[in-house]
Write a structure and sequence with these properties.
Layout lengths: L2 H12 L4 H20 L1 H5 L2 H5 L4 E10 L5 E12 L5 E7 L5 H17 L5 E7 L8 H15 L8 E4 L6 H15 L19 H18 L9 E5 L3 H12 L3 E6 L4 E3 L6 H10 L7 H4 L4 E3 L11 E4 L8 H9 L4 E3 L8 H9 L3 E3 L1 H4 L1 H16 L5 H25 L6 H20 L3
Parallel strand pairs: 3-4, 3-5, 6-7, 6-10, 10-11, 11-12
Antiparallel strand pairs: 1-2, 2-4, 7-8, 8-9
Helix pairs in contact: 1-2, 2-5, 2-17, 5-17, 6-7, 8-9, 8-15, 8-16, 9-10, 12-13, 15-16, 16-17
The structure holds NADPH dihydro-nicotinamide-adenine-dinucleotide phosphate (NDP) and (2Z)-2-iminopentanedioic acid (2IT).
């Protein structure tokens, strides 16, 4: 049995009932086969065994009082996965579905993604099964303060720097920052995605979505294509989706559909992003409200956003939201490129179907790395006690995404998998982390 198969078999045995973690680990490890075979030192140093076991997992109780006076108890987590190339870095997800398997898959992916940015950041993820949806501001604040009252012990600007993810935006980061500062007395860049009045970076809000389009644009250009005049589907209508749609439209594309977890909208005229921002960023309402702004648009709760004919599909909502059946429909309808704004939104069989049919496929750990890359730029600005202009941060982001495309393209070609950017991203992300682990010895 190969080294990779042995490690995978052992991982599944040691971590039962963690399907998302198995899925992410299987995809990565299988594509590392060629580089691991070419470099026996990785097996000798137990790199894969050590890379798939988080440095530590912190789990804690998060008690808070709701508006009716009832005590609520949530689960809180922080998974510090790997800090070989820099302090732990990664988002906090607040969603009722959050569990150990989901956070381990996200933390594991983050290690490779952060390496791909070329910046000195290790990988982590955390969050809670708390659902911010439908909660009052006071309830969200009570939760965030309680969450940070435990989390603060484990984080710091040089140890672990959390950020946003699903359900965690500027409001939640603000409450958490306030509580960290209150408990520790430290005014430091311990979180990213902060508000612009207290240490946040310009362009961080836009960064994941914009970065996705910058990378896609490079990939399309290398294959004699671009966004101009293309029909684009963007799933989700949160932070990543909104700014992916905005930049795609700036590049001449027409975004014809978006969604939330209740349903999807279809607007042949091109989605009105001001309306989406008002509904989602300001009013925190459902996407069905869109029809109040564009009565000619359609709202559906049946079928799937992926049934809409398009040239380019950008899944920007959540894991496993695009399955094999969706992939076949997209291919049949003429889709030529897919870019993952979300983490692992495409099921493995669907991703395979895209590759088999020569659909360009940009995997999340490369395509959505612009968010965490800009978080690292926020950390740099905090350390320097300076703030850069929007243009400066955006230009650095673009440079980073162009470079990521170059690196994943080169790695895919070098190992004989030209245009398979899943293999390219995994190998390119792995190398720097693995070589650092070799250098650090058995730790
Ligand atoms: P948000 O909370 O801002 O938005 C999430 C969006 O996805 C919402 O529209 C939400 O709808 C929708 N969604 C969530 N779950 C489902 C579901 N089961 N079915 C359909 N739609 C769903 O999160 P982000 O935009 O920040 O994150 C989106 C994805 O991007 C995640 O995978 C995240 O890990 C990834 N990502 C985020 C980065 C960031 O910087 N924020 C960076 C890199 C990756 P509803 O409101 O109905 O729940
Ligand atoms: O998945 C991700 O890369 C994020 N949620 C962003 C993490 C960060 O530290 O900015």
């Amino acid at each position: 049995m190969s080294y990779v198969s042995e490690v995978l078999q052992d991982l599944i045995k040691k971590n039962p009932n963690e399907p998302e973690f198995h899925q992410a680990a299987t995809e990565v490890l299988e594509s590392l086969e060629p580089i691991v075979e070419a470099n026996p030192v990785y097996q000798k140093m137990g790199i894969l065994e050590r890379l798939t076991e988080p440095d530590r997992i912190v789990m804690f109780r998060v008690p808070w009082v709701d508006d009716s006076g009832k005590i609520q108890v949530n689960k809180g987590y922080r998974i510090q996965f790997n800090n070989s190339i820099g302090p732990y870095k990664g988002g906090l997800r607040l969603h009722p579905s959050v569990n150990l398997s989901i956070l381990k898959f996200l933390g594991f992916e983050q290690v490779f993604k952060n390496s791909l940015t070329g910046l000195p950041i290790g990988g982590a993820k955390g969050g809670s099964n708390f659902d911010p949806k439908g909660k009052s501001d006071r309830e969200v604040m009570a939760f965030c303060q309680s969450f940070m009252t435990e989390l603060f012990k484990y984080i710091g600007k040089d140890t672990d720097v959390p950020a946003g993810d699903i359900g965690t935006g500027a409001r939640e980061i603000g409450y958490m920052f306030g509580q960290y500062k209150r408990i520790t007395g430290l005014y430091e860049g311990v979180l990213t995605g902060k508000g612009l009045t207290y240490g946040g970076s310009l362009a961080r809000k836009e960064a994941t979505g914009y970065g996705l389009i910058y990378l896609m644009n490079e990939m399309l250009a290398a294959h004699a294509m671009n966004f101009d005049g293309k029909r684009v589907l963007v799933s989700g209508s949160g932070n990543v989706a909104i700014y992916a749609a905005e930049k795609a439209a700036q590049y001449g594309a027409k975004v014809v559909a978006m969604c939330d977890s209740n349903g999807w909208i279809y607007d042949e005229a091109g989605v009105d992003l001001d309306a989406i921002k008002k509904i989602k960023e300001v009013e925190r309402k459902r996407i069905s409200e869109y029809l109040n702004y564009r009565p000619k648009a359609e709202y559906h709760t049946d079928g799937s956003i992926w049934d809409v004919p398009c040239d380019i599909a950008l899944p920007c909502a959540t894991q496993n939201e695009l399955n094999l059946e969706n992939a076949k429909t997209l291919i049949k309808n003429g889709c030529v490129a897919v870019g993952e704004g979300a983490n692992m939104p495409t099921t493995p069989d669907a991703a395979h179907e895209f590759l088999k049919n020569n659909v360009l496929f940009a995997p999340g750990k490369a395509a959505n790395a612009g968010g965490v890359a800009t978080s690292a730029l926020e950390m740099s600005q905090n350390s320097l006690r300076l703030s850069w202009s929007f243009e400066e941060v955006d230009a650095r982001l673009k440079g980073i995404m162009v470079n990521i495309y170059k690196n994943i393209d080169a790695a895919s070609e070098k190992y004989g998998f030209k245009d398979n950017f899943i293999v390219g991203a995994n190998i390119a992300g792995f190398t720097k982390v693995a070589d650092s682990m070799v250098a650090h010895g058995i730790v």
